[in-house]
Amino acid sequence: MKLAHGVTPLAWDIALVVSEVMDFQGEIVVDWEPSYGNGYDHSYCLMFSKRA
User: Which helix (H) or strand (E) holds 10?
Assistant: First the structure.
């Protein structure tokens, strides 16, 4: 996300918060065709598992 004070990686901001209650297992990067430009050419599927 582009903010007034700079750029924040939204997917990793979310991963940081969710990892407080679940275990991060990995990511799947989904490439978009055609690209939407300005760095919007992919998305993240973040995978977590429930803690025992």
Answer: helix 10-18
